[in-house]
Amino acid sequence: MPNKLTRAAKENKFFCFLLLNIKVNFYKKLSLFLTIMVLSGCSQRIVGPTLNTVIPDYLQVNEFQVKNAFILKDNDQAFASKIDIIRNADKELRLIYYIFDLDESTAYMTNEILQKIKEDKDFRVKLLTDYQWNYKNLDFFRWLESQQPHGIQQIEIRFYNRPAISVIKFAEFMTLGCANAKQGAESNGLDCTEEKLNYLKKYDGLSLPQAEEVMSIEAKIFLAGFYAKDPNGILFGTQLGYGRDLQTMMSSPGGTPKIDEAQKQTLMKVMKLYWDAKTGSTSEKIQAKIQLSIAGLFFGKELKPFLNGLETLLPFSLKDADETALMTNPEIAYITDYTHHKFILADTKTAQVGGRNCANAYHMRPNELEKKYIFMDTDVYLDLEPKGGTLFKKTFEDLWGFTEMVATTSEIEKHAPIGFLYMINQANTIAETECSKIEDQIQRLGCSGQVFYNLLDQGYSELVQIKQAEWGEKFTSYLHKYENDYLAKTINKKSWTQLNELFDANNGFVQNTTIENGLHTTNVIPMKSQNIYYVENVPYDLSTKGRNLPRQRHFGAAHGEEIEHGKMIHKVWEDAFIAACEKSEKTQEPVEVIIHQGYFAPTESVVHQMNMLMNEKICKNVKLKIYTNSITTTDLTPVNFIGRRQMHELFQKNKNFDSDKFEYFEYNKAVLDSIVANNFLLENGVKGTGSFSLHSKVILFDDDIYIGSSNAEFRSYMMDTNNGIFIKDVPELVASYKKILKNLEDKNIVGDAKNSLKFSDLLELHQQEVKDFAELRDRYAMDDRSFLKSRKEQLEYTINQLYEILNQVSVEMERSLKKKKLEGRSKLDELLKVF
């Protein structure tokens, strides 16, 4: 069974998240992400165009109108609208989603897509999804592409952020042995680095497709293991390269230096770690095993006699073709950039954007199929005028056709064949029998490698076909479960059994606006026909000049150059903050800025804008309100710890944060749990389990509103693609959304948590962090579960790493708030971009 769980629903969420999301430690140890740029840039107040008076050109070109539109708060209604879009499509569907998990609801959505291609041989579907998240399910997407009722391919799927040549070279470097290395006179070891560098020259001058053609099998295995988050793949790929060459070294052929028995034993210990590091595929095990098996030992002094220290295995000073250090190559530093879009477009007629991915947690209410987190989110359905449809289609095609970063399934098969991972599992099983009697450990490792190669020759294609067929069976199973165990049932105050009872464009759109869920009284907000702006964050220039140039990838962002770096969303936010402040000065009337975001750890620019809004002399009549997850309701715990550090520094810097100008609310887990228990009974009257977690990405700037996929944190600004809509001068719409927030307060679903941000000093704050970690450990019984006891040291190490990062956040925040102008790149943003 595939992993059906979203980020919010992984087993042991707190422990898993620490190991998954504290990527700083993992990537430091693996040396994939050692490029925290020491670059600076800060400002007290950014000068820019005011949206109340001037619409900048980058925004004007993305203006569109709608015939009908709805803000959708209820999960089932938002899913029903997506299904309606698919059913009413004429000839084309275009989709972009960060998460496209095959589970019950996504199987139902997939089936609707398959029905469209069956009905019309000319119907075409394009799906762009994220490489990092979805690679593990690659054969599901290949199965989906293979569904060809008319004998032609009608569904095409591509993956965002394919490995660049620098990443391929890194994989080669990590899996290259040094059997022919020369004896190094000064180090009394082997000049392994020189040998590797000579080998990597074969990539000089190659295009990306050409580089994929000349990759070694070992490098392909390494990449497959990396993207699948499978330590066995990473370790096996490295083992094949080093194991083969170590065999050569042991036999001392002509020209290869001899090594004594003690050195041989040391090498055997290294290889034993590779061989014994057989773990599952969860992210926390990757971090632990890679950290211990690869990085940890290679820091050790015992390897220096025959491996040139760290330089041999981790290419810190390895030069790329342009003479830059490979490990500072931005393509490696930004290897985990995601496409975080949420986007579906039918022809050029209807679209939906917002915060919801494609998985049960976004498309259901609490039920027996999804017992953990259910996300509270916000989407927007858009019945487009022709200009809007053309605009949406063009922005999709721009990203879809950005081949520098986008790979087809066939291209992935060339550089990271997931079938190799299946073969590794088979090879390990066979080798346990066939190779176990070989006494010499190095020869035994060589034997296991030969088993793998034999399997590749004998049945690779057949095994891949079997795996894809298994996905087809899972699809059918999940489809039936959604239809029979969710859609057809009317428990949990659910009166409907067909999705068109909730949303039907052919019969008046929204059919039922009184869905009971205990969270809010309003599930749907109609939008009048007004001017709307489609906004995106993408990895290329969005300026007027840049639109006429060939697409070239940009990395991160720089203050004052957001549009040139493709960060339109954050430029819109910046201008809207300024406009709200200026309106308060001009009218002397109260202005509210409200942030309703599941993940709140603001970028440096937003930090400075918040500080400006709380400045009595500049923005006397502005009130700032934040609604976000608490530590107990979020699926991304460290984000809350980071955000609290930031708010502590703001409280220290600006005392107006302790006045009525600032309000801060967090979701109340106890109340959310009671809503689930009392409103979502399971069969036989059993109370529902699990809870809700906020996932919305909404900001109200006075009478303007942003709704989309971009979080108020660093990843969304520095790394990921995102999209959304920005609507100006819609006081009635804003008032309707404010009613939803007021309802949350009235029902105590959110509570005043401003006092939780106030600390006399960092010592007091750190004491609270220690207490919070202890409570989390107790809640998840971390110290009681036997499978966690063996990883206690790793857990302690990871928590200490988080403390170090939090301390750096405090230092950079203090430095930032002393500066008067934001210019260039931000050290604070760079520090936390991997979260």
UniProtKB/TrEMBL annotation:
Superkingdom is: Bacteria
PROSITE patterns with a match to the protein in the record:
PLD
PLD phosphodiesterase domain location is 335-362, 690-716
Alphabetically, which GO biological process terms does the record hold?
cardiolipin biosynthetic process
The molecular function terms in GO held by this entry are: catalytic activity
Which PANTHER family does the UniProt record give?
CARDIOLIPIN SYNTHASE, CARDIOLIPIN SYNTHASE C
Its protein name is: PLD phosphodiesterase domain-containing protein
Q: Which organism is it from?
A: Ulvibacter antarcticus
